[in-house]
C-alpha cells in the first residue's frame, strides 16, 4: 500500500495566523493568562510532583482501566494517528486471513492495487484532519451526517447504512467539533454498538469532553466512552488544561488495539521526559487545575452566549457549558465574514474547513478579558457589514 501525506488545508491556514492578529477567536484551548516562559508553564510552577506515580498509571486510574489499556502519546493528533494505524491494521490482518483461508486469486489479495481499501466513516460536519489522516494511511474515507437541522445529534443508524465489508472504524468528536454539542455516554454506547454490528470500532476524540461546568463524574469531569466495548478514545492536556506546549496526549482502548498502536509508535518520536514529568505533576494536582479551568470555561461561555443573544443577524447555538460554536450570518457567507474579520484584525475560522461553507466558527480560549475585547472588535466588524 502506498502512503502519501498531503497538506491539510485547515492546518495550512491556521498555523501562524494567531500571531498575526490582535484578537484571536479561533483558538479553543483554555490558555492561561501568563505567557509560557522558561521550562515550566505558569499553571504548574511551584506545584508538588508525585513521588512514585507513572503517567500511564495516573491515566489508567483516571479512566478506571488497566495500564495495558493506555498509551501515552505526543498529543491528541499523535494519538488519533496511532489509533488509525492500529484499527486499519486490524482490517488488513483480517483481509490477509480471509485471503489465506479462501485461497483467493493473487490479484484480489490485500497487497494488490485492486484490493478494496479499509473503510473509515467520519462525522460530517467535522474536523478536517480526522479525514485526512486515515486517507493518507490508505483508507477509504466516507462520511456520515450529524444533521444541522437536528442540532448535530449523533444518529447511530447512519453507521450501518454507510458501512461496507471493509469497515474499520467510525470517528466522532465529543464535544462535537465544530458545533460544541456534547453527547452522553449512552449515546456513545449506542454508536459503539452499531459500529460493532458493522464489524468495526468507534474512535472518539475527547479533547473537548472536559468542557462542562459543573463537572460530571467522568475523567477530567467530562463524559467519556472509555471502557465501552470496541471503543478507543483519545485525549490530551492541550485543550482543557491549556498545556499544549507539553505535547502530551493518550489513547485508551482494548488491550489488543493499544498493543498494536504501541508497535506503530516505535516508528515515531516519543514524548520527551520533561513533558512526561510535568504531565505527571498536572494530573497529581488536577483538583486545583480543574477548578481554574472550569472558572475560565464558565466565564468564556457566558461571554459567547451573551454575544450571540445581542446579535439577531447571527444564527447559531451555544451548547450548555460550551465555549465554541458554529454561526451563520443572515446576509453574508462564512467566507465573507472571515475576510471582513481579518480586515478588522480578528481571527475566526472559515466553516469550509468543517464542511460548512455557509458558516464560521468562533472559539473562546484566551483569558476572559482578552476574549471580551475580541468579541467587541468582532462586533464592530459585523456592524460594518
UniProtKB/TrEMBL annotation:
Biased composition (Low complexity): 101-112
Molecular functions (GO terms): pyridoxal phosphate binding; transaminase activity
Top EC group: transferase
EC number: 2.6.1.-
Region of interest: Disordered: 96-120
Taxonomy, superkingdom: Archaea
Occurrences of domain Aminotransferase class I/classII large (ranges): 119-378
Cofactor: pyridoxal 5'-phosphate
Keywords: Aminotransferase, Transferase
PROSITE patterns: AA_TRANSFER_CLASS_1
Family, per entry: Belongs to the class-I pyridoxal-phosphate-dependent aminotransferase family.
PANTHER family attached to this UniProt entry: AMINOTRANSFERASE FUNCTION, HYPOTHETICAL (EUROFUNG) (PTHR43510)
Protein name: Aminotransferase
Lineage: Archaea, Methanobacteriati, Methanobacteriota, Stenosarchaea group, Halobacteria
Amino acid at each position: 500500500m502506498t502512503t502519501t501525506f498531503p497538506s491539510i488545508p485547515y492546518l495550512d491556514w491556521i498555523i501562524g495566523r494567531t500571531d498575526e492578529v490582535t484578537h484571536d477567536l479561533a483558538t479553543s484551548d483554555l490558555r492561561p493568562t501568563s505567557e509560557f516562559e522558561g521550562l515550566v508553564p505558569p499553571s504548574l510552577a511551584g506545584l508538588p510532583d508525585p513521588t512514585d506515580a507513572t503517567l500511564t498509571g495516573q491515566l489508567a486510574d483516571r479512566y478506571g482501566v488497566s495500564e495495558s489499556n493506555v498509551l501515552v502519546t505526543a498529543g491528541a493528533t499523535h494519538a488519533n494517528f496511532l489509533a488509525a494505524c492500529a484499527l486499519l491494521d486490524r482490517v488488513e490482518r483480517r483481509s490477509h486471513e480471509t485471503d489465506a483461508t479462501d485461497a483467493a486469486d493473487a490479484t484480489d489479495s490485500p497487497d494488490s492495487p485492486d484490493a478494496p481499501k479499509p473503510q473509515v466513516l467520519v462525522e460530517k460536519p467535522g474536523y478536517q484532519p480526522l479525514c485526512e489522516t486515515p486517507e493518507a494511511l490508505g483508507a477509504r474515507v466516507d462520511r456520515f451526517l450529524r444533521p444541522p437541522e437536528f442540532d448535530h445529534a449523533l444518529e447511530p443508524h447512519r453507521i450501518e447504512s454507510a458501512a461496507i465489508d471493509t469497515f474499520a472504524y467510525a470517528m466522532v468528536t465529543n464535544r462535537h467539533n465544530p458545533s460544541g454539542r456534547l453527547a452522553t455516554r449512552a449515546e456513545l454506547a449506542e454508536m459503539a454498538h452499531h459500529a460493532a454490528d458493522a464489524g468495526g470500532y468507534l474512535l472518539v476524540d475527547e479533547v473537548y469532553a472536559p468542557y462542562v461546568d459543573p463537572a460530571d463524574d467522568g475523567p477530567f469531569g467530562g463524559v467519556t466512552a472509555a471502557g465501552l466495548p470496541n471503543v478507543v478514545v483519545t485525549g490530551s492536556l492541550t485543550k482543557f488544561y491549556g498545556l499544549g506546549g507539553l505535547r502530551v496526549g493518550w489513547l485508551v482502548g482494548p488491550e489488543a488495539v493499544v498493543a498494536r498502536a504501541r508497535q506503530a509508535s516505535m516508528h515515531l518520536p516519543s514524548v520527551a521526559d520533561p513533558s512526561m514529568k510535568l504531565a505527571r505533576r498536572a494530573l497529581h494536582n488536577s483538583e486545583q487545575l480543574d477548578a481554574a479551568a472550569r472558572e475560565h470555561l464558565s466565564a468564556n461561555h457566558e461571554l459567547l452566549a451573551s454575544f450571540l443573544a445581542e446579535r439577531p443577524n447571527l444564527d447559531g447555538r451555544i451548547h450548555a457549558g460550551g465555549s465554541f460554536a458554529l454561526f451563520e450570518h443572515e446576509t453574508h457567507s462564512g467566507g465573507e465574514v472571515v475576510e471582513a474579520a481579518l480586515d478588522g484584525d480578528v481571527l475566526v475560522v472559515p466553516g469550509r474547513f468543517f464542511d460548512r461553507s455557509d458558516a464560521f466558527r468562533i472559539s473562546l480560549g484566551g483569558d476572559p478579558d482578552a476574549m471580551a475585547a475580541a468579541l467587541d472588535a468582532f462586533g464592530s466588524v459585523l456592524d460594518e457589514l
